[in-house]
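Model: You mentioned two targets. I'll fold them one after the other.
Researcher: Yes, keep them separate.
Model: Target one:
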Amino acid sequence: MNKFIITSGAVILDEYKRILLKKDPWRGWELPGGIVEENENIKNAVIREVKEETGLNVDIIEFCGISQQLKGNICNMWWLGIPINGSLRTSEESLEVGFFCIDEALKLIKNDCFKEELLKCLDKDNHPFFIAW
């Protein structure tokens, strides 16, 4: 039986259009998100993950698209959101957290697939997107 892992991640933009990133202990800088738990709504999963990883409560405003990692059978659901309250804090899953302009974010993120996902999420004219690698 094939088993897929579903994740839900988000581009969270503050009032200055800066992007929320977290520094994962293993993968480095990335967008917040994580695995959708059993019996969990995909949209609620990203709200929970952003809160756990960054300390912020967010409002999800738009579905962006899907990226599929063929190796590992992972489907990533992507959203756009805004912070509504809370304060930035780190967790076991985030060594650092912060808001960054697009140029800074693209320099911090070392994984090319993560960069592509970020750019696709920001390209609202082409939602929903689908990419696979």
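Model: Target two:
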Amino acid sequence: MILLTINALICAAACLRLITYRRDGARHRVLISMLAYVLIVATGTVALRTLLGLYHAPVDPSEVVINAVLCFAVFGVRGNVAELFRIAAGPWDGHERRKEVSP
């Protein structure tokens, strides 16, 4: 029961953060908007189904962890789904992390 409540609160927080995102001049992208909508509906229904007592499946601790990571990521990018899935420009070869070894 406690995991169910924690999961519902985490999903509700992620849903509310996604709903309250403000573009502030950012360009509108249809696919990103659709992905944001799917995330809002998915996280929102978990919270609503729990609140209404319709969530009958047992909650696994790994599900709570996955939802918590998603929630932290959503808050980290301030609800910007495009930023959540941004891929860095250009290939990365790892040179900046390698230490130069002198012979």
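Researcher: Noted. Anything on target two?
Model: The chain has a mean pLDDT of 87.
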